[in-house]
Design goal:
about 100 residues; alpha/beta; four-stranded parallel beta sheet; about 45% helix; about 20% strand
Length: about 100
């Protein structure tokens, strides 16, 4: 399982700190509009399975591209609810 977490703020970074203790996944990509925040959240896990990526959650095509690029099998929306539809659409487009 390869997970794309859209949003690296409070919810996304909390997910990462809990998930790092689990073995059910191969990789997690923490994505955020601010690439520094995404990388920082990934680095705080001290786990090589986590990486950071820049992503505009309002851009359906960008969500799909990020998911495809990182070969993600699952997408977790940890962003503001106003981004539900572009994230859902991007997930659908990525397959």
């Amino acid at each position: 399982m390869r997970i794309l977490v859209v949003g690296s703020g409070g919810v996304g970074s909390a997910f990462a700190m809990i998930a790092r203790r689990r073995s059910f996944f191969e990789a997690v990509v923490l994505a955020d509009l601010d690439p520094v925040r995404a990388r920082s959240a990934a680095e705080r896990t001290l786990d090589a399975r986590f990486t950071g990526a820049a992503l505009d959650a309002s851009d359906r095509a960008a969500v799909a591209q990020c998911a495809i690029e990182h070969r993600c099998t699952h997408i977790l929306n940890a962003a503001d609810p106003r981004f539900v539809m572009p994230i859902f659409g991007g997930a659908f487009d990525a397959g």
